[in-house]
Amino acid sequence: MRHGGQILADALAAQGVKRVFSVPGESFLAALDGLYENGIPNVVCRQEGGAAMMAEAWGKMTGRPGVVFVTRGPGATNASAGLHVAMQDSTPMVAFVGQIGRAHRDREAFQEVDYRAFFGPLVKWVAEVDQTERLPEYINRAFHVAMSGRPGPVVLALPEDMLSALCDVADLAPTAPAIPAVSGAQVAALGDRIAAAERPLIVIGGPGWSAQAAADVQQFAENWDVPVVCTFRRQGHMDNRSPAYAGDLAVGMNPKLGARLRSADLLVILGARFGDIATNGYEIIDPIAPGGSIAQVNPDAGEIGKVFRADLGIVARAGDVLSAMVDLPVVKRDGAWRADARAEYEAWQQPKETPGAVKSEAVIAWLSDNLPEDAILTNGAGNYAAFLHRYFRFKQFGTQLAPTSGSMGYGFPAAVAASIADPGRCVVCLAGDGCFQMTLNEMSTAVQHGATPITIVFNNGRYGTIRMHQENHYPGRVSGTDLANPDFAALARAYGGHGETVECTEDFAAAFERARAAGVPAVIELRMDGDIMSTNASLSETRAAALSRQGR
Fold first, then answer.
1. Residues 147, 159: Cα–Cα separation, whole Å
2. Residue 178 belongs to a domain
3. Where are the alpha helices (DSSP H) in 349-410?
């Protein structure tokens, strides 16, 4: 006889779970007891949103579901931010949520939430376990759903009395993964289309990639002289130094890359969800009239043709298709299309100087030139991230953790999780002053669990992205975008970390080396000029252009 919490923990062990993230609650005390008995490490966090983002980052890094435990009511609603990231980013994740006792349902009991209704549109599957003896069944299915097809998050609600009840039930071995296979005929058909195209473009993205897949796409593209672009925040899927790499289809993308995307006569979409960000709000390519031919590879049949009709659809993992494509006889083409794409990328990397004594473009260039090639970079959302995406060259697979969902606050919890996963690795979080303050309370989580990420805070005293849009639409009419900030370096030291403030670019390199040598979580606050706005225009330039458009 075991209580439900022990059955649950044993099921996690059977699934190969090595660590969970949580904010404890009285609604799942039995589960905590089960984790204790099994010796599964539990990273205790400070807020459920941060815990869920750490679990999501863990899923991105490992390719296995990240696991988070949160309590009922406010704990569950706080965690929804991280679950949304997992859904949009196609990251495998399993969230266990405490629930009221079964006898008190539908009375609006303390912290009662209908989780099926609340999480239904947000995750792949949500269920509530009513019978203790069915815990192995539900958990087995949860992990299978999280990993199948297009990966994503699953939520299991655990009524408190169900979890503490005793039961005699056998454990279940994990379901064998159902891996879609690719045929030689499909690979040959894809190769024929690429060979026949005059202006092919390979678009890579999505989950389920590996170092081998990254090497294979590089080898194929270089041999066949085909340019490769990645989707938003998937730049780590290929070595950016390759002559075949042509940039990223991101917010504020290179206009010349957008034009190249529009003129391509064949798009080979490998693993990516090709949507509004990649097409600049469907302006570059319209789903109603897409123009060129599209070949799409995705392990989930439901994703093929979901937005853009496909002329060739292959239900398979991108890596499996690529491993077969590198064995195809090489079809050489005029290299000008690929070479021009690379030249446009190189030109886009030449920075426009920003205002002030601290230059974001110079900081990113230094990081790109000096970080170890396997350093992990994380970020949340904000204009500061555009400098990273434009000027940093990712060199290895698995070095980028960033939310394609555009979630603020993600970068720091992700960096904590990455540092816990690989204690000897250099982990750098880039954050804006607004972005960092959404989850900086996880600094004490980092200290407690021995994580040592270095966080670079770009402090310009505002929510920069929203201010940019504000100035574009309502120039000079500022409301709700200015911030009063703490001394971030002092705050880091108060948590037991290392903190420094940098007020000119020349001081950054030495500050970074001291932060890396500190052996504790570190924060480097960059005091940015108030006129800095984006990679293309300052605040004053943005406002002036908007006023000019309005005839003022």
1. 25
2. no
3. 360-370, 383-391
**Within 13 Å of residue 426, how many CA atoms lie on the same side as its CB?**
13
- Tell me whether residue 287 is in a domain: yes
Q: Which residues is 522 bridged to in the sheet? A: 454, 498
User: Please, what sign has the CA dihedral across residues 312, 314, 319, 322?
Assistant: negative
For 49-67, write each residue's pLDDT tens digit: 999 999 999 999 999 999 9
Q: Which of 20-24, 476-480, 527-531: highest mean pLDDT?
A: 20-24
Range of the domain at 225: 184-348
Task: Please state the domain count of the chain.
Answer: 3
For residue 110, pLDDT over 80 is answered with no
Can you tell me the distance from the alpha carbon of 318 to that of 296, in angstroms, rounded to the nearest whole number? 10
165: enclosing H helix or E strand: none
Give the domain CATH number at 198: 3.40.50.1220
Same domain, 486 and 386: yes
Nearest to 535 by CA among 342, 346, 364: 364
How many whole angstroms separate alpha carbon 96 and alpha carbon 22?
9
DSSP letters spanning 440-492:
GGGHHHHHHTT---EEEEEE-SB-HHHHHHHHHHSTT---S-B-----HHHHH
Domain co-membership, 333 together with 373: no
Q: Are residues 129 and 247 in the same domain?
A: no
